[in-house]
Design a protein that fits this description.
- The complex is a heterodimer of chains A (618) and B (103).
- Helix content of chain A is 38%, strand content 14%.
- Chain A is built from 21 helices and 16 strands.
- The radius of gyration of chain A is 30 Å and the shape is elongated.
- In chain A, 46% of the residues are buried.
- Chain B is globular.
- The N and C termini of chain B lie far apart (31 Å).
- Chain B has helices at 7-14, 19-32, 35-44, 52-64, 68-78, 89-100.
- Chain B has six helices and no strands.
- Classes of the chains: A alpha/beta (618), B mainly alpha (103).
- Chain A binds chain B through residues 161, 164-165, 167-169, 171-172, 175, 255-258, 260-261, 264, 266, 268-269, 271-272, 582, 585-586, 589-591, and chain B through 1-2, 8, 11-12, 15-21, 24-25, 27-29, 31-32, 37, 51-53, 82, 85-89, 92, 95-96, 98-99.
Chain lengths: 618, 103
């Protein structure tokens, strides 16, 4: 017969404990309680009337009510006996386990130490970033609503000394609990709210299941659906946006040397939460995947450091890595993924699944995606994909786009140029109010591109279709040098799509010294924009026309625009390399190759099939 | 980082920082070259000599002070702990520093 198991969730309130407890309630055979030692009510007992009845009988309180003062007095007078009676009642009702959460100071450390001596008891510590947790508590103290209510719009003022005082006290409380747990020798696992619970539903269940396995508990769930009453109350991803004085509080904490401390969860010494075991795949590798995708780059061979693309929401490299044996000779590797389209509007679950499988089949190899916005970072995190800030436009090679390239002799001067393929989402029609813009594009081989070409010629009869103009009506491909010389014929670069990737041409305009007129967009092209060198206008032909006129009236020299851009590029490349080196060191050790930006220049446009990259690695 | 001897430093210490906070302050002091905080933190954490973050901080302190022999010795101790299971900024910084040291 299976022995009855008890799971204590220890931590602090406002750490996602309702979410975790509601998941544990779905464990097969588990009596899942909430805060059984909460001051005014033994929470969660009301869901089990039969257990409550038995408990009242055992404690001699008669029919027990979880908030009855008499019942609570008996509980508080002898918490250990109460816990034992609760456990007995759950067993008697046929449950195979029980779980409950106990926050710091709900019970004394000696009482906790006594509970930790019980057989088959194990512990999950639940932690959350100190400052996120504190702000959640602060908001709760204002609204008095600790569940359901959306508090996103509430932005209280945070007092840094008050926060620190609370954080220091709570650290000490948690340290005392951890010491008791470690001394008792019970099995313990850790779950972090940010890393393990604030995720996609399926992934979150996986993480809880791993924690349960780590403490020797089976993890068969009756359902994996999140209860409707458990909703995220604050949807701001960045803590500074959750409060009125976010910037000032962050500056104050940085000045004290405690910003990292504030943002980190407590109990760092517990280590990371359990991660998925090695995956098993029986099917052989699909060699056809090697012919997919084309922008692949090996930065280092051993340990392997690669840069490949996410195309159509897929990583062909990761999909190929999943197989019955290790795919690569190298035992360690970090594989950076560069999206070719914004991930803000993409369902990332299939990608996350393929990355997990690839990592599971190839222990020691890790994927890291590049994100261009906080929103994209959050989407990655929600499905368990690690990411660092990294904008593909940083890898454009500025040496091809100097500000003093001689203007192309075959083209007239124009106010604006738009370098964009002939796809409808490029919104060429927004340039229709300009007098004679220059359009540079890929060959319109696809029927939809041909149709767009014809449509644009009607809509913009005075526009110069550069690629056809330069070869008397036949399509003419422009190399980098020739493109730079055509850019020298324009005053402003246009960026008219509203959703795409980072739009390489927008970075090239700026490197060539052309200021940019853009419409609002997602995808990351605004990384290199400054208020001087770029103007974001409404997505209408009139607004684009007026924006171009306004930008030309600024009389910026191309040297000024290029200098401002390169200054931004250098800063951002440094940030990228720092983040990339940090994550590589954390994943495969400090002696791994150092990533620098120079070898990465132009990798995003150098065609290298996946097959050739794999051969280079092997 | 605020100075150890200034009024803000005294106010912060009066809040009775936890062990985690003391470790964080020591780490920040190492970055900013604030020796006062380092000595104070080392003293506050002396009962935790076997804690791997404290060893990492002592290693970085020794390396920063130019005491290569002590740094070497402390790294040997630190290297005996599992290091890949953590997201600790202090341990990561210690690993980064180790990579640049000539031993």
């Amino acid at each position: 017969m299976t022995e009855f198991r008890e799971i204590l969730v220890l931590g602090l309130g406002r750490s996602g404990s309702n979410l975790l407890s509601s998941i544990l309630r779905k464990l097969d055979g588990n009596a899942g309680f909430f805060e059984i030692f909460f001051d005014g009510k033994a929470q969660g007992l009301e869901h089990y009337p039969a257990i409550l009845t038995r408990l009242g009988e055992a404690l001699g309180t008669g029919p027990a009510k979880p908030d009855d003062p008499v019942f609570l007095k008996v509980r508080n007078d002898d918490p250990v006996a109460y816990f034992e009676a609760l456990s007995q009642a759950a067993r008697a009702e046929g449950h195979v386990s029980m779980s409950c959460k106990i926050f710091a100071r709900h019970i004394s450390i000696p009482v906790l130490e006594t509970l930790l001596r019980r057989p088959n008891l194990s512990v999950i510590f639940l932690t959350r970033s100190r400052i996120h947790r504190y702000i959640s508590e602060l908001k709760g103290s204002i609204t008095r609503a600790y569940v359901r209510e959306d508090t996103t719009g509430l932005r209280p003022v945070l007092s840094v000394p008050t926060f620190l005082k609370a954080a220091f006290r709570q650290d000490r409380d948690l340290d005392a609990m951890l010491n008791a747990v470690v001394a008792s020798g019970v099995k313990v696992a850790r779950l972090g709210y940010e890393d393990d619970l604030d995720l996609d539903e399926t992934l979150r269940i996986d993480r809880v299941a791993l924690a349960l396995q780590a403490i020797g508990h089976g993890a068969s769930f009756k359902t994996t659906r999140t209860d409707a009453w458990v909703v995220k109350q604050d949807s701001n991803a960045v803590w500074r946006d959750k409060i009125e004085n976010g910037f000032e509080a962050a500056a104050a904490l940085a000045g004290l040397g405690l910003l990292d401390y504030a943002e980190a969860p407590p109990l760092a010494e517990l280590g990371q939460s359990p991660r998925a075991p090695v995956a098993e795949v029986i099917a052989p590798r699909d060699a056809a995947l090697l012919d997919e995708g084309g922008y692949n780059f090996v930065f280092a061979h051993d340990p392997a450091i690669t840069f490949t693309a996410i195309q159509y929401g897929r990583s062909f490299f990761a999909e190929w890595l999943a197989g019955p044996d290790r795919a690569l000779a190298q035992h360690r590797g970090v594989h950076f993924l560069k999206p070719t389209w914004t991930m803000e509007t993409t369902d990332l679950k299939p990608l996350a699944a393929s990355l997990r499988l690839a990592e599971g089949c190839n222990p020691g190899h890790h994927f890291v995606a590049l994100h261009v916005s906080d929103r994209e970072a959050r989407k990655y995190r929600e499905v368990g994909i690690r990411s660092i800030p990294g904008n593909p436009n940083l890898f454009n090679d500025e040496r091809h786009f100097a500000e003093d390239v001689a203007p192309h002799p075959g083209m007239p001067q124009s106010d604006a140029i738009y370098v964009a393929r002939l796809a409808p989402w490029k919104n060429h029609e927004l340039a229709s109010a300009l007098v004679a813009p220059l359009f540079v594009y890929g060959a319109p081989v696809d029927p939809s591109e041909s149709a767009q070409f014809d449509r644009l010629r009607q809509l913009c009869p005075t526009a110069h279709f550069v690629n056809h103009t330069l070869d008397q009506g036949r399509y003419h491909y422009l190399g980098r040098q020739e493109l730079a010389s055509v850019m020298s014929r324009a005053g402003v670069g246009l960026a008219l799509s509203q959703e795409e990737g980072c739009m390489r041409a927008s970075g090239e305009y700026l490197m060539a010294g052309l200021p940019v007129v853009s419409v609002p967009s997602i995808g990351g092209r605004d990384l290199l924009f400054t208020t001087d060198t770029a103007l974001i206008v409404d997505p209408t032909p009139e607004a684009v026309r007026n924006g171009v006129a306004q930008m030309l009236a600024r009389n910026l020299s191309r040297e000024e625009v290029r200098r401002a851009t390169l200054s931004r590029v250098q800063d951002e490349r440094r940030r990228f390399c720092d983040a990339a080196n940090r994550i590589v060191a954390s994943l495969i050790g400090p002696l791994s190759p150092r990533i620098s930006s120079e070898p990465l220049l132009d990798f995003t446009i150098r065609y290298v099939p996946l097959r050739r990259m794999i051969e280079a690695l092997q | 980082m605020i100075t150890f001897d200034g009024p803000e430093g005294a106010t912060l210490r009066a809040l009775n920082p936890s062990r985690s906070a003391v470790r964080a302050l020591w780490f920040a002091a190492l970055t900013d070259g604030q020796d006062g905080w380092g000595s104070w933190a080392a003293d506050k954490l002396k009962a935790m000599a076997s804690d791997r973050e404290v060893i990492a901080l002592r290693f970085m302190q020794a390396a920063g002070d130019g005491n290569t022999a002590a740094a070497h010795q402390l790294w040997a101790i630190l290297a005996s702990f599992p290091m890949t299971d953590t997201q600790s900024t202090i341990l990561k910084a210690a690993r980064d520093l180790r990579a640049s040291l000539p031993f």
